């Protein structure tokens, strides 16, 4: 299944736009309860206005909330970013730390956020257990755990550490494009032959193919038709 995912999404990546660790950390905090697309629409103005941790710490709350409004829960997110900026300045000289146990001490940063930052900003392998990842690895029978930390450790034992970050991207891509929560595209899924949950969604190719999304759609359907 890992080989198939690698063929399906060779270029999978973080779908949040960023140019440095602080921008990625901010983008991940903003991605809660909204889409990466919406976050990417908002962050250019945020990043132009707030360039350092100190800038967030000293932010004008009203201005920051207004910039964040389209992402939803903007008051709570403004609180998180201001607290995050202050904590980075006080504890880490304004720099984003590159260690999991340090990242998770920051306001609004859990293991999921920390692993995204480690894997994509610092090249430190990490497994990102978001809703897509947890749903898919349970569907595939890789683990029955529900707790994200237990899921992270269970999958980490199955997959070589060097693969963790790309595995996370590929599973999340697959969840967004093929293996949807309510109606997975089973009949147009490259992983179908190895999936114990095959049949959860439509198994006919034509019907399932209509459910496949994303720019990789033609490639995914060609994989299924050629197998």
TrEMBL record:
Limits of the HhH-GPD domain: 30-177
Top EC group: lyase
Binding of [4Fe-4S] cluster, residues: 179, 186, 189, 195
Known role: DNA repair enzyme that has both DNA N-glycosylase activity and AP-lyase activity. The DNA N-glycosylase activity releases various damaged pyrimidines from DNA by cleaving the N-glycosidic bond, leaving an AP (apurinic/apyrimidinic) site. The AP-lyase activity cleaves the phosphodiester bond 3' to the AP site by a beta-elimination, leaving a 3'-terminal unsaturated sugar and a product with a terminal 5'-phosphate.
HAMAP family: Nth (MF_00942)
The gene coding this protein: nth
Catalytic activities: 2'-deoxyribonucleotide-(2'-deoxyribose 5'-phosphate)-2'-deoxyribonucleotide-DNA = a 3'-end 2'-deoxyribonucleotide-(2,3-dehydro-2,3-deoxyribose 5'-phosphate)-DNA + a 5'-end 5'-phospho-2'-deoxyribonucleoside-DNA + H(+)
EC number(s) from the headed UniProt entry: 4.2.99.18
Cofactor or coenzyme needed: [4Fe-4S] cluster
Family statement: Belongs to the Nth/MutY family.
The protein, known as: Endonuclease III
Single Gene Ontology BP annotation: base-excision repair, AP site formation
Keywords, ordered alphabetically: 4Fe-4S, DNA damage, DNA repair, DNA-binding, Endonuclease, Glycosidase, Hydrolase, Iron, Iron-sulfur, Lyase, Metal-binding, Nuclease
Molecular functions per Gene Ontology: 4 iron, 4 sulfur cluster binding; class I DNA-(apurinic or apyrimidinic site) endonuclease activity; DNA binding; DNA N-glycosylase activity; metal ion binding
Comment on bound cofactor: Binds 1 [4Fe-4S] cluster.
């Amino acid at each position: 299944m890992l080989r198939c995912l690698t063929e399906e999404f060779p270029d999978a990546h973080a779908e949040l736009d960023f140019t440095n660790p602080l921008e990625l950390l901010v983008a991940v905090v903003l991605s809660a309860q909204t889409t990466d697309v919406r976050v990417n629409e908002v962050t250019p103005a945020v990043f132009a206005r707030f360039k350092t941790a100190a800038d967030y710490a000293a932010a004008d709350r009203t201005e920051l909330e207004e910039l964040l409004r389209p992402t939803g829960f903007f008051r709570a997110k403004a609180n998180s970013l201001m607290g995050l900026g202050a904590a980075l300045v006080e504890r880490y000289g304004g720099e984003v730390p590159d260690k999991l146990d340090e990242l998770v001490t920051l306001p609004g940063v859990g293991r999921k956020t920390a692993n995204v930052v480690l894997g994509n900003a610092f090249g430190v392998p990490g497994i990102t257990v978001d809703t897509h990842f947890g749903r898919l690895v349970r569907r595939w029978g890789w683990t029955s755990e529900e707790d994200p930390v237990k899921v992270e450790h269970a999958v980490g034992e199955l997959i070589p550490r060097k693969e963790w970050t790309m595995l996370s991207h590929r599973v999340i891509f697959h969840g967004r494009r093929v293996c949807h929560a309510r109606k997975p595209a089973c009949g147009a899924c490259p992983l179908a032959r190895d999936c114990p949950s095959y049949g959860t969604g439509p198994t006919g190719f034509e019907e399932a193919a209509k459910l496949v999304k994303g720019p990789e759609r033609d490639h995914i359907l060609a994989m299924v038709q050629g197998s």
